Amino acid sequence: MILHSAGEDALIAYLGEETSPAISAKVQAAAVAVEAALGDDLVDLVPSYASLLVIYNPLQTDHLSVAHRVREAVAQSDTVSASEGRAVALPVYYDAEVGEDLPGIAQRAGLSTDEVIALHSGADYRVYAIGFAPGFAYLGQVDERIAAPRLATPRQKVPRGAVAIADRQTAVYPAVSPGGWNLIGRCPVRMFDPDADPTMPVSVGDIVRFTPIGRDEYLALGGEL
Amino acid sequence: MALKVTQPGLLSLLQDSGRYGQHRIGLTNGGPLDPAAAQLCNRLLGNPAGATVIEASFGGLQLEVLNDTFICVTGAQMPFKINNKDAERYAVHAVVAGDQLSLDFAQAGCRAYLGVAEGFEIAPSFGSSATVMRENIGGLTGEKLAVGDILDCAEVKQRRLFFINPESQPRYHDTVTVRVIPGYQQQHFSRLQQRRFFSHRYTVSDRCDRMGYRLEGPAISCELEGILSEGICHGAIQIPADGQPIVLMNDRQTIGGYPKIGAALSLDTAALAQLTPGGTVYFAPVTPHAAHNALHLAASMTKRQKLLERPA
């Protein structure tokens, strides 16, 4: 593990350098251990692909003490395996009607749109991180054949529920927002609902699988066009 | 039992001390951009430090008082009037139903805080009333204040009339030195690039808001183009491909993939937030130890600042 200063109230621990389930599991284990070790000195944690941002109360403790406790906690957490994430199924209506970039991805890959759908819905995705916006879960990794770079000009308005690909990541937009990811379908499940408990259907470490559904079923599940 | 918004001004937001512990579902902090000014407002009013106040940016806010209470204004130098008569900032005033309050456009600074006795009564979302428009969370509706909004507050008949002397009030300048703890991807910026960053003058661009302040000046290059997305702390300074630094503020995204050279001290992001476009910024490196000393000193001075009292 490499530990760097982040700011006056934060340290960042790097547990690896690439996207992999093994490194993500280390991050998960480290988050659990750090939370226990810092107690009420801890303000917040941001687990991500290969790093853990540790935010502490700088009027209550200091960086040396936090660094020491984080190092010890992470060293001990290495021997503990991260808890297996839950399996979460998310229905998706894949169609050019709601996934404007689906034909483009198929064309670039030399595949039919059905083959793109089969590849996207045929894999398990790990929730590597949640952030950027409330409920935005970064899922990985998509098959290299359907990986697609971000749009040169982001769309002003991506609808809620849009299922999208950027490089080898995929995500469901939790709310209407601008966005530069490639749209391939629409999911009727709300990824972030402030009034629901839990507010999100997934958390970091969970395993997501997308299930293709038809237009009628999408509408029946509350999906909007 | 309320104040009514008759003119919202350019950007007026309900804020408590911010929303903490919710990064794991992607929620940012929000909260006052100049927390010391918001806290001082609450302290003068005898409120808890995190009571909900209005953060008025740039000015133009007008309110009608619907019940007797006490109010106080701190922060940016916005001419403050009660029933069209000049009123002291940094002083508690008794107001009665029917009074008209106004905060005109800022003459120095950018963010002012208007508080009421016992704070505005706003139902918390995820533990906080802080308004984050980008997330549509907090405040009354997740949005900035609008004409006709009713801001509930208690009817209060008695309050000590605290104030502080003008010479003890913060002053706002158009140049700020932002102390920075080098960190994150700092080692991926060459010595030359780091020296460039810490020795040149930057200017606040038009693209500055509660998410981040984009600065203009000598471009800084990093040997990394992008990084695996990682958590972003308050004050983190991103260097995107165009080399123009962005200081990330209260409403920042919680995760991002641009390299960062370090993070600004919160005391200095508060000063930065009081600048307007065209303001001058210099960066100075400090150790985490020096940053903590500065924080403790500021906290202690805030606590020990002497309040004077007018007779009721």
Class derived from helix and strand content of chain B: alpha+beta
The share of residues in extended strands of chain B comes to: 25-35%
Question: Main sheet of chain B: which strands, in order across?
Answer: 13-20-17-18-15-14-21
Rg value of chain A = 19 Å
Write down how many β-strands of chain A occur, each being a DSSP E stretch of 2 or more residues. Answer: 13
- Beta-strand residue percentage of chain A: 25-35%
Distance between the termini of chain A: 46 Å
Biggest contact: A-B, 44 and 44 residues
Q: What's the SSE blueprint?
A:
The complex is a heterodimer of chains A (225) and B (312).
Chain A: E1 2-7, E2 10-14, H1 21-38, E3 42-47, E4 51-56, H2 63-77, E5 87-94, H3 102-109, H4 113-121, E6 125-130, E7 137-140, E8 155-158, E9 162-166, E10 169-172, E11 177-179, E12 182-186, E13 207-212, H5 215-220
Parallel strand pairs in A: 5-13
Antiparallel strand pairs in A: 1-2, 2-4, 3-4, 5-12, 6-7, 6-13, 7-10, 8-11, 9-10, 9-12
Chain B: E1 2-8, E2 11-15, H1 35-45, E3 53-57, E4 61-65, E5 69-77, E6 80-82, E7 85-86, E8 93-95, E9 100-103, E10 108-116, E11 150-152, E12 161-163, E13 175-182, H2 191-199, E14 202-208, E15 212-216, E16 230-231, E17 236-238, E18 246-248, E19 255-256, E20 260-264, H3 266-273, E21 280-285, H4 288-304, E22 308-310
Parallel strand pairs in B: 13-21
Antiparallel strand pairs in B: 1-4, 1-11, 2-3, 3-10, 4-9, 5-8, 5-10, 6-7, 6-9, 12-22, 13-20, 14-15, 14-21, 15-18, 16-19, 17-18, 17-20
